[in-house]
Amino acid sequence: MKTQLDCLPCFLKMALAGIRAACPGQEDVHEKVVKHWAAGFAAADLDESPPSLAGRFFREISDHIGAVDIFKDQKDAANKRVMELLPEIREKVLGSEDPLLAALGVSIIGNYMDCAVAGEFDWEAELETLEDGLDCELFSHFLDKLEREKSLLVLGDNAGEIGLDTILTGLLQDRGVQVTYVVRGTNVLNDATLVDAEYVGMTEVCEVVSSGVDTPGTVLDRCDADFRARLENAPVVLSKGMGNFESLWGVLPGIFYAFKVKCPVVAKIAGHPVKTSLFCREG
Question: Which part of the chain is the Damage-control phosphatase ARMT1-like metal-binding domain (predicted)?
Answer without folding.
Answer: 4-275
